[in-house]
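Hi support team,

I've been running sequence recovery on a batch of backbones for a student project. Most finish fine, but this one hangs at about 90% for roughly twenty minutes before it completes. I'm not sure whether the input is malformed or the queue is just slow. I've pasted the structure tokens below so you can try to reproduce it. Let me know if you need the job ID as well.

Thanks,
M.K.
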């Protein structure tokens, strides 16, 4: 009998574990997980999840940083026959709660209390550390799942124009098509050493994970502080003998300009998630592969090798469609445009998502019947991207039909930022755009019109937005205008928005100095970790450049400095030096940990936890 798609994915990993149980599957800062251990731990966790009601009807949230635990948990969820929803623990509590409620998740898998505040009676928690002993009692093997090709493998949440994120539903068929293409296209073998750099909530993490686990290659996870450090990441890639890596476009452009030894083990640098603006120099000792693909098309839609020193006056192409994926360029009447003409990019084939979770109207709008196919149920996904075909079939990306933007690889709907900015009591109107700041990365800039009675500081606006939006959606610069420029249609004329300058840019208040010796010590540790001395005791750790993995390092340093068992979750509810210091003082005096919660969380009921062990 032919295997189902869901069985095949988990069975491929199982085959690797049986063939080479002692081979390294995942490595992170000295912690090595073999394929044998990965299979064993995933089976036991899957048994725990099944005992708590996991099935194919409701997804399971993974609230974990990049780590071996994330890899084990993702595999375990698929083994349990459920789809997984990866989220970044650094997201604001309100966003985490929204995802838990919108996805109607059956369970949350987490560690160190990172999911505190999002659990409920309908969505209990399995904590990998607190429940470790109970999880270890489950059987070391279990029957394969019965997932079918059109069942969901995972759900990724992306920025939404309505002010709330939307969940994209990806099936096993679509995921396996990505895996099979990747393995063949890049000739992946068990000898390859690949990387896991992307945030768990970014769909590139899916691409970094499954093609290598299904092949028996090893995954290597760098420190979070290296992920945006071109020279540091290069040195780490060389030290770890990495052979294949994915690097977001802005960072790849920086890394191409670095010196590389001729004998580097790296053979492929995969890039994507933003427009590539330069060709690699001659003599680069590895190939650069440019990739394009919306989340709705399972990460990668087109791919191609970028030649060294390409033709002057042109940008690198986004390659050609991958296996079992078709690309059409259509005009506004859904007629195909000839080579060299601009059209909107539509995608069909096995890579398409099922649609948007709980958004039937949006699904119907974006996923339309394919008039060019006689296959029943064939669909086209309307990307909103503009492109043109070259005579040789390569595709040039030309921009957007709307105001969607990308920064650091993240897809950003300005409408989501505008919706929250306009909820601030001092903001009457707003607009958000990406501006080129002369470096490889763009800056997210917000333009606001305020009430005459009140003019908020930039820090106040950032604090407000961070309560509702992840860090990558929060503008770095806020420009104050008397009114937003409008075009003849009454819409904001983005081309008429002035560049930020000293006279129109909102400033933050002065840096607040430490008031106690404890604050001074904590501030010193935070400043040293972030590499900045312009930090005050009231500045938010995440606004100043911190993220979930740097947060884990910070908590580790604080634990060592004060010889206290400080929960990692404290940083996400108390992200300033002043709040952290207060929390440390409370731990010193033995006060209840709940006092660390901010006012917005004080009314939360204790979250239920369960991991039942069969009698």
């Amino acid at each position: 009998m032919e295997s189902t798609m869901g069985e095949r994915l988990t069975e491929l990993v199982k085959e690797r574990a049986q063939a080479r149980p002692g081979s390294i599957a995942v490595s992170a800062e000295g912690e090595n997980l073999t394929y044998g251990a990965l299979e064993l731990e995933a089976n036991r966790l899957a048994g725990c999840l099944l005992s708590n009601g996991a099935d194919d009807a409701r997804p399971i949230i993974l609230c974990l940083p990049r780590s071996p635990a994330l890899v084990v948990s993702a595999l375990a969820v698929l083994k349990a026959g459920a789809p997984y929803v990866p989220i970044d623990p650094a997201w604001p509590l309100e966003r985490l709660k929204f995802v838990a409620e919108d996805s109607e998740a059956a369970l949350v898998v987490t560690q160190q209390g990172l999911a505190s505040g999002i659990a409920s009676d309908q969505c209990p928690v399995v904590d990998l550390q607190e429940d470790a002993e109970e999880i270890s009692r489950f059987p070391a093997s279990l029957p394969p799942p019965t997932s079918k090709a059109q069942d969901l493998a995972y759900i990724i949440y992306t920025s939404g124009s309505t002010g709330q994120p939307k969940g994209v539903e990806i099936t096993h068929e679509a995921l396996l098509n990505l895996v099979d293409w990747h393995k063949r296209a890049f000739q992946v073998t068990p000898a390859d050493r690949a990387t896991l750099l992307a945030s768990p909530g970014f769909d590139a993490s899916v691409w970094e994970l499954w093609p290598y686990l299904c092949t028996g290659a090893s995954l290597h996870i760098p420190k979070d502080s290296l992920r945006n450090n071109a020279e540091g990441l290069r040195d780490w890639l060389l030290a770890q003998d990495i052979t294949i890596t994915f690097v977001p476009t802005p960072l790849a452009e920086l890394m191409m300009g670095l010196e590389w030894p001729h004998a580097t083990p790296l053979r492929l640098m995969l890039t994507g998630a933003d427009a590539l603006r330069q060709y690699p120099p001659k003599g680069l000792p590895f190939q650069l592969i440019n990739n394009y693909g919306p989340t709705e098309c399972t990460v990668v839609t087109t791919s191609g090798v970028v030649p060294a020193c390409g033709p002057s006056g042109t940008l690198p192409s986004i390659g050609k469609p991958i296996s079992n994926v078709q690309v059409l360029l259509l005009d506004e009447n859904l007629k195909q445009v000839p080579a060299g003409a601009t059209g909107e990019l539509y995608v069909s084939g096995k890579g398409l998502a099922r649609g948007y979770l709980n958004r039937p109207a949006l699904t119907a709008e974006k996923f339309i019947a394919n008039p060019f196919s006689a296959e029943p149920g064939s669909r086209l996904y309307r990307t909103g991207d503009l492109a043109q075909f070259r005579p040789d079939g390569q595709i040039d990306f030309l921009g957007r039909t709307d105001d969607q933007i990308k920064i650091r690889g993240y897809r950003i709907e300005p409408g989501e930022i505008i919706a929250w900015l306009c909820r601030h009591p001092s903001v009457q109107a707003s607009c958000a755009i990406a501006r080129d700041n002369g470096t490889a990365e763009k800056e997210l800039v917000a333009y606001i019109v305020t009430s005459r009675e009140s003019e908020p500081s930039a820090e106040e606006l950032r604090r407000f937005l961070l309560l509702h939006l992840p860090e990558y959606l929060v503008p770095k610069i806020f420009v104050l205008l008397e009114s937003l420029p409008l075009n003849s249609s009454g819409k904001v004329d983005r081309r008429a928005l002035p560049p930020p300058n000293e006279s129109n840019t909102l400033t933050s208040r002065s840096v607040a100095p430490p008031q106690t010796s404890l604050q001074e010590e904590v501030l010193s540790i935070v400043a040293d970790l972030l590499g900045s001395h312009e930090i005050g005791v009231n500045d938010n750790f995440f606004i100043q450049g911190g993220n979930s993995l740097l947060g884990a390092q910070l908590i580790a340093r604080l634990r060592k400095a004060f010889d206290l068992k400080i929960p990692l979750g404290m940083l996400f509810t108390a992200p300033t030096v002043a709040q952290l210091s207060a929390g440390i003082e409370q731990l010193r005096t033995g006060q209840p940990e709940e006092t660390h919660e901010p006012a917005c969380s004080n009314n939360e009921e204790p979250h239920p936890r369960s991991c039942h062990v069969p009698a």
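--
Follow-up from support: It reproduced on our side and the slowdown came from queue contention, not your input. Residues 592-615 have pLDDT under 50 and may be disordered. No action needed from you.
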